[in-house]
Write a structure and sequence with these properties.
The protein is mainly alpha-helical. It has a single domain, classed as Arc Repressor Mutant, subunit A, CATH 1.10.10. It is about 50% helix and about 10% strand. It contains four helices and three strands. Strands 1-3-2 form a three-stranded antiparallel beta sheet. A hairpin with a 4-residue loop joins strand 2 and strand 3. The radius of gyration is 11 Å and the shape is globular.
Amino acid sequence: MEVKFLEKMLTAKEMCEWLGITRVTLKKWCEKGLPVYRGDKLLRFDVEEAKDWLRNNGKNKEDN
């Protein structure tokens, strides 16, 4: 992945903070299809893709 591309994305920690969820919930959502980019021990999330996924899948903080 390009560095510029990664700079526009959130880490797992940032994603949890942005959504107000735990890492356990984030992991479950990834298993259910939340778009995630995986690198060497790194997870990155595109905010726009996450918004679309959450909107289309009706996910909320209680859905874990």
